[in-house]
């Protein structure tokens, strides 16, 4: 008799440079995981390539399903289908959700049909909505707050350029005329803001779920460091930013001598994600908000300062819930975690 699958792993951007490397690393680490690649276009060559690569490792359970993160309707449809399939026992409960998909743009884009800057909706609002909408599908834990499943948000050091009120300030009025080029600095702040808001809101969600008591989700951010490879994000960069990225990539072996996060292949962070998703000794201190930079762990509020401000965190979580049009009964206000690291 075939061994039962141990759980479903959902990877958004599962055919992207990092997402596909994570899928392969998980297929190698845990042969009994069901891999669900959440991708924009299931017929894309990159999707077929990663599925073939995974099947080449050995017998594996893998599939791709469509999700467009610029449309809440698509996110809701994906989440609802997935939860129904889990309830019918077509696929096992979710053991890990990796929010890896992201977009980068250096022009002022038209608002999405939901009324948001597409960078903000793709990188922040939709991963948040997806996580909340999948709550009914995560593996139940042993009762301990982090024992159930992992939600790993792929972060980025660009977050340090981010501003919490950026989208309200710049884009709340509709932004500038679509097609207007943005200066590199402005594009970086826009991208960093989307990543900062996503991470902060997700830690707020984790705290809120902990207070609600019965939803054991370990939600954290992992910054994969600089990566050499075929990231499609870099094709959207203006030439000045792309030049810096390429120069860093070509100096990778040298830069690694000075900093392990400077520039790696995608396999390095991918293996760390696979290890976190199937950790035999999961972290014990469930009070702690963990932020990973590769495999180094930090107390999240030492990196995302707003996590120390309860009122601002409450406002942020409320704003996110309103923007993704969710009413969550029984959710309680997040409070700062003790900074014990
Ligand atoms: N590359 C780096 O140096 C670097 C450094 C630090 C952090 N990161 C982070 O690593 C993560 C992965 O980046 P990457 O380098 O692997 O980039 P990538 O190759 O461009 O992958 C991004 C993925 O996101 C998907 N995506 C974009 N918009 C989408 C939408 N509307 N709906 C659904 N999927 C969408 C893309 O799908 P399509 O295939 O359809 O385009 C692609 O698969 C990102 O979160 C990024 O911020 C990257």
How would you describe this protein?
With 341 residues, the chain is an alpha/beta fold. The chain has a single domain, classed as 3-Layer(aba) Sandwich (Rossmann fold), CATH 3.40.50.720. It contains ten helices and ten strands. It has helices at 17-29, 45-57, 72-87, 118-133, 166-171, 184-212, 239-250, 252-258, 267-277, 310-323; strands spanning 7-12, 33-39, 61-66, 94-99, 149-154, 217-223, 227-228, 264-265, 290-293, 296-299. The strands form two sheets. The chain has an eight-stranded mixed β-sheet, sandwiched between helices. Strands 7-8 form a two-stranded parallel ribbon. A hairpin with a 2-residue loop joins strand 9 and strand 10 (296-299). It is globular, with a radius of gyration of 19 Å. Residues 13, 15-19, 40-41, 46, 67-70, 100-103, 122, 154, 156, 224, 226-227, 231-233 line the site of NADP nicotinamide-adenine-dinucleotide phosphate. NADP nicotinamide-adenine-dinucleotide phosphate binds next to helix 1.
Counting helices, strands and paired strands, the structural category is alpha/beta
- Strand percentage lies at 5-15%
Ligands bound, unique = NADP nicotinamide-adenine-dinucleotide phosphate
Spans of at least 5 consecutive residues whose pLDDT stays below 50 are: 332-341
Looking at the structure, the CATH topology is Rossmann fold
How would you spell out the order of helices and strands? EHEHEHEHEHHEEHHEHEEH
Please name the CATH architecture: 3-Layer(aba) Sandwich
H/I helix tally: 10
Counting copies of identical and different chains, the oligomeric state is single chain
CATH class: Alpha Beta
Largest beta sheet: what is the strand line-up? Answer: 3-2-1-4-5-6-9-10
Tally of domains: 1
CATH homologous superfamily? NAD(P)-binding Rossmann-like Domain
Number of strands: 10
Fraction of helical residues:
40-55%
Distance between the termini: 47 Å
Bulk shape = globular
- Sheet with most strands: 8 strands, mixed
CA radius of gyration:
19 Å
Mean model confidence by pLDDT: 88
